[in-house]
Amino acid sequence: MLDKQVGGLVPVVVVLAAVVLASSSVLLAEEAAIAAAAPVAAPAPVVAAPVAAAPVAAAPAAGPLLPAGWDAKQEADKVLARLVNVCEARVKGAHDSDFVILDGRAYVVYMANDRQPGEAANWPFIYDALSIVNLRTLAVEKVIPFAASGQAYANHTLAEGACFVPRILQKDARTLRCFFASENPGKRQAQTWRRDFDLQAGAFDARIHKARIKTPAGVFDMQPEAFYRAAAAEGFKKPPKDFGLYQIDSFKRFDGKTYCVLNNYPAGQNALASLDAACETFEVIGHFNEPQTFKLTEAAVERLPDGTWLAVCRQEAGSRNYTFTQSKDGRSWSPNEYRPVIPNGTSSKPTFHRFKGVYYLGWQESTRIKGVHRSVFNIEVSADAATWRRKYRFETEKSFQYPVFREHEGAIWLTVTQGDSSGSRKERIMFGRLE
Question: Sign of the C-alpha dihedral, residues 82, 422, 347, 101?
């Protein structure tokens, strides 16, 4: 999601053997505020009791996780050297990507603009684009902008406003579905839309349709107010926002269902949600916003070996270090807590995955390379989600922020936001193979 919305917007998970968990005026000033904040050590962790649940059926990792003499930074440097830019030359700012891979191509979506580095929810010139990348050559075969302020479709014309935080998934053998938020903070409720891409035709549908959100109160257009009311009914007390609702951690399959994390960055809201079989309606399963003295947002979730859920959350208050929360059923979540696996994180989107029986936890470190914000990103790995080892340490003055990882035919691929000179370093989306 973003990390700079109308005032600012948007790695990774850890678990101890006990399976604990703890990823209006716009906040365009976020980068300045972050730059001014000195890193603060996280409080001592509080360990919660483990909860019982049905175990996750997945093959455990075989053999050692890392070979002898593994150098996390050296291996990360190799990854950095083979990344390619998927944006057009005219793009000045880009951020918050997502992608799927099929039939030898990566389909990468992201938000972009042709004026300046960075992003903000009150910039109506931000649009969403799809880049199609050949996996063998890494050549960008086509770039298709698909959502922009005021864009006229066959059945609807978008209102003025930024098109933010696109997400993509494969709906069926012929169709990719893209979601995006159209928003104009302080002027209207943001709306999440969906638009389909026909793989055979190589083109987008001429129409768009509203995504829906299902809460205990009913089914509604997917807008921040419906998400907020559901949280408020369970005791959420922070003020509502009319923008900022995204599928921040998308999309993961468990037990034959599709899940994601919904969040509202400016409001500090988070919830686990499922997507229906038609890929049209997001159902809120359980909120995790406690303690409300923290400002929690942009979480990533996974299932643990015992079947419980673990979420790692970005934090905007106090030390800005990541916190963790756990759940037996995805509905009721423990209060967020710090965990020693991430001793010095800073506010940015985390990642949490299980690839080939191995957990990958990604997190942004507060350390800065030559003063550059978000210039250090670590990936820890674990076979049991209890004992972690450092596999990658990305250190770069170009930044390494908001990565997305996907497994395809035994390989792990990624997208990531980088830049050369702006304070935000949100200038382009890079793509390549992690391993």
Answer: negative
Alpha carbon distance 287, 234 (integer Å): 8
With 0.90 as the threshold, say if the pTM is over it: no
Sign of CA dihedral 74, 77, 81, 83: positive
Instruction: Return d(Cα 119, Cα 186) in angstroms, integer.
Output: 17
How far apart, in whole angstroms, are the C-alpha atoms of residue 205 and residue 90?
A: 25
Residue 198 makes CB contacts below 8 A (sequence gap 6+) with 174, 175, 204, 205
- Can you read off the two tokens belonging to residue 65? 């996780």
Please give the chain's pLDDT, 435 residues, in tens: 444 444 433 333 333 333 333 333 333 333 333 333 333 333 333 333 333 345 555 555 556 899 999 999 999 999 999 999 999 999 999 999 999 999 999 999 999 999 999 999 999 999 999 999 999 999 999 999 999 999 999 999 999 999 999 999 999 999 999 999 999 999 999 999 999 999 999 999 999 999 999 999 999 999 999 999 999 999 999 999 999 999 999 999 999 999 999 999 999 999 999 999 999 999 999 999 999 999 999 999 999 989 999 999 999 988 999 999 999 999 999 999 999 999 999 999 999 999 999 999 999 999 999 999 999 999 999 998 888 999 999 999 999 999 999 999 999 999 999 999 999 999 999 999 999
Separation in Å, CA 383 to CA 48, 56, 249, 271, 310 = 21, 13, 22, 26, 15
Residue 172 burial class via C-beta count within 10 angstroms: exposed 0-12, middle 13-18, buried 19 and up: exposed
Specify the residue for token string 């579905």.
177
Catalogue all structural domains in the chain, each as residue range(s) with its CATH number: 30-433 (2.120.10.10)
